[in-house]
Amino acid sequence: MITKISDFKNPFFIGVAGAGMSAIAQYLQGIGKNVSGSDRYFREGEYNKTKTQLEAEGIQCFPQDGSGITAETDLIVVSTAIEDTVFEVQKAKELNIPIIKRSALLAMIAESKKTIAVAGTSGKSTTSAMLFQILEDAGLEPEHYFWSRAHEDYQRRKNRQCCRGTRRVAYHRSR
After folding, report:
1. What is the pTM assigned to this prediction?
2. Is 25 helix (H, G, I), strand (E, B) or coil?
3. Exposed, middle or buried by CB within 10 Å (0-12, 13-18, 19+), for 49?
4. Which of 19, 99, 117, 174 is found 20 to 30 A from 145 (Cα to Cα)?
5. pLDDT in tens, 11-30
6. What mean pLDDT is predicted for residues 118-128?
């Protein structure tokens, strides 16, 4: 049973191109997990910006056809958008690979370190960035874990230091 971050090494994300899923995948890759994933928008020979960015971070990306789920895969992560009828979910069940929702994995991540979470209608990205800078200037070695389409470059820069801190600043999901 998967109950904490140390319980798995090779997670596979079904729907990895989503804003929330890709942020979590990048975080796990940054802390040393061997992350891979698929998305229905990943097609052979077609450019996909998110796929290119994930692969640049060392995350293996596959079409959503089951080819990325291997004997080494020890956890499947799905969002609420992924239905049980998806072929990869069925394959994972046949192989007895544990399947958890993105929200459960996010809870495990939040429990693993002191966490400040930012939520609300507007201003989450700015508030998250400001909190990070305040904690960093105070010498508290925070990690910054958030995703906002409006702040992609900033997020990629800060994700590179996501694993060094003892405190997590914020999680932000933007639609």
Report:
1. 0.83
2. helix
3. exposed
4. 99
5. 999 999 998 899 899 989 98
6. 84
